[in-house]
Amino acid sequence: MSTLSVRAEPVEALRPAQGERRETRSTCPYCGVGCGVIIESQGVQITGVRGDPDHPANFGRLCTKGSTLHLTATAPVTLQTRLLQPMRREHRGDKPRPLGWDAALEFATESFAQIIGEHGPDAVGFYISGQLLTEDYYVFNKLAKGLVGTNNVDTNSRLCMSSAVAGYKLTLGADAPPTCYDDVNHAGCIFIVGSNTAFAHPILFRRIEDARAANPALKIVFCDPRKTDTAGIADLYLPIQPGTDVMLFNGLLHIMLWEGWTKPEYIAAHTTGLDDLKATVRDCTPDLVAQVCGIRKEDLFTAAKWFATSPATLSLYCQGLNQSTSGTAKNAALINLHLATAQIGKPGAGPFSLTGQPNAMGGREVGGLANLLSAHRDLSDPQHRAEVAALWGVASVPDKPGKTAVEMFQAAADGEIRALWIACTNPAQSMPDQNTVRRALERAEFVVVQEAFSTTSTCDYADLLLPASTWGEKTGTVTNSERRISRVNPAVPPPGEARHDWAIAVDFARRLERRLSGRPEPFDRARDRPVERSLFPYTCPESIWNEHRESTRGRDLDITGMSYALLEKTPLQWPMPEGATQGKARLYEDGVFPTPDGRASFANTVYQPLAEPRESRYPFSLTTGRLRDQWHGMSRTGTLGRLFGHVAEPSVQMHPQDMRRRLLAEGDLVHVTSKRGSIVVPVQASPEVGLNQAFIAMHWGGDYLGGCSSTGHRLAGVNALTTSAYCPSSKQPELKHAAVKILKAELPWSLLALGWLSEDTALAVREQLRAVMELFPFASCVPFSNSVPLAQAAKGSRTGILLRAAAHEAPPAELLARIEALLGLDGPEVLRYADPRRGQRRAMRLARHGADARLEAFVLAGDISAQAWIRTLLQDELPAQAYGRLLLSPGAKAPVAVQSRGKLVCTCFNVTDLQIGECLADSAGDEAARLAALQADLRCGTNCGSCIPELKRLARQPAAEPARA
């Protein structure tokens, strides 16, 4: 059987002429801000990217991640990290072998049909992603619920935004953020809670900085357990204890009611339920709230006054509220404050949930969750199920709730779900409680992974790998946090045999439709049309989008007034019903809400403690969060050494006082252990982290932070620690908190290996080092790069690999030789030293660069006390010919001439904290003047602006103390 016909996009977009230079408008694939980008390409290669000045989300700005998109799409990266053809494993653990698309999809069809026939439709599950396009999402949702007959389709957006969905619906009646980005320009008070906006949504943060500059009277409150860079812009910082948000919000409402700062007229006309809530918040006295939350009572009063009495208050929130067993209550309790003070439905006011992924909103719109149906319909509503069934042309839609993300993998681990189809997501890194997730992937009878990147951890568990297109190649739509729909356009064709996600799903669906129905093949290839009525008649993304558009008619998110043609001209916000000339920027301005009585509802939010509070055996609260320059599991950003400049290696951050109490020094290895697992990681002192708290970035999965346990099991990164306990309403897990203990790891033997590699081998070497990492109790492996400004990176940057490891004793010499060979340290020109009795070994490779010899690669094993200066010698490409004997001498002191450039602050211009300190030492004036001097002298902060919060923090320090960040 030949491949069924699906048309991806116009042929001219797929096959640009060789050497032709083109520019293509599209959308950034990272966070929910939804920035517009202009992709520069030549032939079939992406060569550059810049912000789209006409896109209303970013007006031409991009953050560090967005501005380096083209560097992760260059040919060597693409060829080494991409999945380029379908691959099949005959047996788990085997190396996958290539096969054709036809054979691959027939194999998938046979396997799913057999499992469905023997065990029923609920024996299969589809786990998809907020990084899929809306059209992709729509097809998968229809495939599961309309064809297979199961609601077992859920998404990694469950891990990110489902509590926001539940909170909006519980209070306002619909999953619709009532605000827009422009509201930051009209707000008198911005209340940021549970969001490190400076890192997670950098371009929105730039707009907040602009709003503050334009309106110095603007009050900003920042509420979070960590004093992150976002705190730097705040007039008031509330360092609450993890998980106490509901108590805080109830306490704020208590004060507002007591002081008469609420709006009784608005409450009476537009809301219900306040009396029940009053009975709950009556007990949330300022003394109790201050004690539970760990904040000053005076600050609680100030926050309540600013929030309630401001002309307009805008709240911004993200995973700190959502990723919690009380996630829905946290969201609803914050919305209660807006309803009580009438801070909604007007410019500058309202509760604004910031979506974490580029299309988490689009997935919600098409019902791509186990409890939703298309166009914000509820699975539990018989009328809604009947409407969707009629739209799709099926007899019915199943009414049994599907398995949500955590439930789906638990069901697979228990043998209830036997087949998993995973698309565009990496649950073997991102899901909590990795022991359960990996057991699920191992036990499932059949696992399909539909993925662009071959390097993700989940690919290791796949029976069938299907290559998908990615950013720069895809076509369709996404919806950002402010309900704005943008077009995604292809600049180049997908490499190899990769196909678009929607096309893969449609092809599979048609085959499965034929198999399950017993009908002949439902597609006439000669005429490129269905023979009979098929559930999946789509030949291009626009045909899918048009069906989705029709499903919204008369709904709260009505987009019947939009079209692909209009979206090509400008991104549009919903709702925009037929006949409208533009979308609606703000909702509920008339005080009418999408509820049966038209009123919003106060939710009676009762404070509940954490699912896993600190206790004597696990005395630390571990939180997780984002790094400035990385994205999720780093399958894309992790290919680029320059994005590791700001945070070079994994670590657990602790308060300096906690470290002193436990006799821990900077860089010591520690065991971080929860009730589910343990990892080994270096410790780092951080003033951002509160006492009895710890922080590990969410990005450090097993590909970058690994090793093996005492029982020989591979360690799985930070999510080996997190709990799968979830909010009972939203089913979103409490990824933001786990109770842990932190103990010094007694691993006296250490290794550090660094080497410059050619661009076309660096990533391949890192993949080979993944297997080496499993042979040590602790190991980390990351790329790095040299100091080249972003504008020169495409031509002048070098790529290196860093491996760090530790063990109880020296490993076999064969293992060290293997590491040396991978870094090119196996030739006769390599300088060597070895003392097997002491477990020490060194290897150094130098190469001539003009008149100088420079260090190209090295291994320090056993004694790594000289790591700082030798690493500086290599990474800063300093002359090394004078240090030959010292390089091989264990414990050698650092030469005076070898001084580190410092910690990178500005990724665009490679400016370090030491350079900034030197510049600030010679500058005077207030923070603004000192920042201006930095930007004038060093150019830092003048390109993407992601480093500006850190620059301001450094500029606030006294001139005599230009300390490291």
Task: Please provide a brief summary of the model.
With 965 residues, the protein is α/β, with parallel strands linked by helices.
Task: Describe it.
With 965 residues, this protein is α/β, with parallel strands linked by helices. It has five domains: 87-160 and 360-573, 3-Layer(aba) Sandwich (Rossmann fold), CATH 3.40.50; 162-353, Dimethylsulfoxide Reductase, domain 2; 611-745, Beta Barrel (Barwin-like endoglucanases), CATH 2.40.40; 747-897, no CATH class; 904-956, Arc Repressor Mutant, subunit A, CATH 1.10.10. It has 32 helices and 39 strands. A seven-stranded mixed sheet has the order 5-4-18-17-16-6-7, sandwiched between helices. A seven-stranded antiparallel sheet has the order 30-33-34-32-37-36-35. Strand 35 and strand 36 (840-849) form a beta hairpin. Residues 1-14 and 960-965 have low confidence and may be disordered.
